[in-house]
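Ops channel
N.P.: pipeline sanity check, posting one input/output pair.
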């Protein structure tokens, strides 16, 4: 089954936080994601599995 990639906005909605907070988590390495370059600006993408692992680590 293919892994679904979430945008920062989708991940932020799942975490109930502002997208800027999610981007900061990605830059700090708290949340794993990949940066995909699409022209002059790169965009972050997060797998559903990485998001689930982050939520699991932070809800104990």
């Amino acid at each position: 089954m293919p892994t679904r990639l979430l945008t920062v906005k989708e991940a932020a909605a799942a975490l109930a936080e502002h997208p800027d907070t999610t981007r900061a988590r990605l830059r700090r390495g708290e949340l794993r994601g990949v940066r995909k370059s699409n022209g002059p600006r790169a965009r972050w993408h997060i797998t559903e599995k990485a998001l689930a692992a982050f939520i699991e680590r932070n809800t104990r």
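N.P.: looks fine end to end. Residues 34 and 45 are 5 Å apart (CA to CA).
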